[in-house]
Write a structure and sequence with these properties.
TIM Barrel, six-stranded parallel sheet, about 325 residues, PYR_CT (chains A, B), lyase (chains A, B), Hydroxymethylglutaryl-CoA lyase (chains A, B), HMGL (chains A, B), 10 strands, homodimer
Chain lengths: ~325, ~325
């Protein structure tokens, strides 16, 4: 399949990044980063999560952060929630752009660890979310299959297990009379490789032929950009990414391999531009945002292009 | 074209890495790294360069380093030289495995900057090296085309300029009656992308149909592993790489974008293994070597897998 003409990139850095860092980064700094990302042309920015402030104190001030952002028309400032309480908080936070997002898991052990529920029970619970979103007047926009490639408890997840999660979603669509616009395969803890990416995209297209396929990749083991390229060659045109590769944690040992960041937004944009794929983003502004993120966090971040700079365009007259 | 069944990886870390760091790393530490790399199965390790000690004091002790290494049978411990003096020093250093390597440039400005000669004059000077190597009883093993994709003075290098360098090599083969076993396309300062990698491999195969194509990639702008994957899919089975991604310099600003390291050996090996390609290397031992490199250098290095660890193999009985 050919490369897409255009890709859509959703920014995850403000949530992914600051969720894993020490608490205490100022609202002003985090708001300025979100604003810089919007200036660079990002149209979908995940700002913060509405989760238990006792477990994730970094996100306790999510509502204040949303309120502090100078908003830009046409940009969606989204949040993440994992339970009803979180959704109620997000709903009550006026400037949050609510999204009808469903979550499924292909790893039973990972689902139990993260949700206290196995993958099937968790999947069944999404039926309640379909109905809840409807009650709030929200369309179902997308579904994520987390740990779609593997996880740190079970290792590689079989294609059959992923297919089971996907077939559940297909059945849920029929039973609840909706059609899923987008299905994300999430390589939550970095188990994907270019071959498994291609095979699992095929599988998702077979089971959910009407859904646009998106990828949520982490660069845990260095294959993030190779995986993105493999997906682009399958015509995939929807990616999550984190500015500067935010979300990685240099202080986490190998037992926390899951703590590596999303693939880096500006490096992905550079890949797309080099391949002639439109992103709608302003790469120099995006690099400014990445460098702002680095100044805020106060240590070298993982992004490559932000440190090397853009290559020169060919200068006339220098050629031999 | 299909993936190769097996790849050969040449290790560049000991030279690439320590050449760019402050001088003064001990011979003992550097020798122990080389030994760890040989233990991991690497069969071609570039240990040091024989260059002007006034310009590159880090490599002033190259001969002592070679002497200190406990050698392993079957491993080639190679060096780099840029002029006759360097070659004479290397030749006089008993344990150096001399290699008949030629160097060409596709960028005129970069060649002038590095060699004081334009690309054509430099290319012509390689005829002298063909003869010199023969006088020393050395086979011509390989030729590098440096800056085969672009450089930081001229930006992108056109395919026509690369073709000119390749045609010169083809003519030199005929005129000097040798057949080049291996031709490396070197992305010296990180201008390659998966598309240009594929196009330029095709070009090299067209002009030098008998040469095995190798790639020397730097991960300057985050596309290193995507570029390697694109090459693997073209059947390329010969790569240079640096353990832990050695060779990067976090203190170099964007004006020194060229200071990013080679693609990371163990991350490349991981990619290959995930794709079912044999490398002949022991990945856990290679990770030990990468972590040793990090302890010696004393700061976080760029490799990903060394920090995240290998993924679990699927554990029986955990599946739902």
């Amino acid at each position: 399949m050919a490369l897409p003409a255009r890709v859509e990139i959703h920014e995850e850095g403000p949530r992914e990044g600051f969720q894993i860092e020490r608490p205490g980064f100022s609202i002003a700094d985090r708001a300025s980063l979100v604003e810089a990302l919007a200036d660079a042309g990002l149209r979908h920015i995940q700002v913060a999560s509405f989760v238990n402030p006792k477990r994730v104190p970094q996100m306790a001030d999510a509502a204040e952060l949303f309120a502090a952002i100078r908003k830009r028309p046409g940009v969606r400032y989204t949040g993440l929630w994992l339970n009803e309480q979180g959704f109620e908080r997000a709903s009550a936070t006026a400037p949050v752009d609510l999204t009808g997002t469903l979550f499924f898991y292909a790893s039973d052990a990972f689902s139990r660890q993260n949700n206290g529920k196995g993958m099937r029970e968790l999947a069944e619970s999404q039926r309640g979310w379909v109905r809840r979103y409807r009650e709030h007047g929200l369309q179902i926009e997308s579904a994520y299959v987390m740990t779609a490639f593997g996880c740190n408890y079970e290792g590689e997840i079989s294609e059959e297990r992923l297919a089971e999660a996907l077939r559940f979603i297909a059945a849920l669509q029929r039973e609840e009379s909706f059609r899923l616009p987008a299905l994300y395969l999430a390589d939550t803890v970095g188990h994907a490789n270019p071959r498994s990416v291609r095979r699992r995209i095929d599988l998702a297209r077979e089971i959910l032929p009407h859904a646009r396929i998106g990828l949520h990749l982490h660069d845990t083991r260095g294959l993030g950009m190779a995986n993105a390229f493999a997906a682009l060659e399958m015509g995939v045109d929807l990616f999550d990414a984190s500015v500067a590769g935010l979300g990685g944690c240099p202080f986490c040992g190998s037992e926390h391999g899951g703590a590596a960041g999303n693939i880096c937004t500006e490096d992905l944009v550079f890949l797309c531009e080099q391949l002639g794929i439109e992103t709608g983003l302003d790469l120099p502004k995006l690099l400014d945002a990445a460098r702002l993120a680095e100044r805020i966090i106060g240590r070298r971040l993982e992004g490559k292009l932000m440190h090397s700079g853009l290559p020169l365009t060919v200068r006339e007259g220098v050629t031999a």
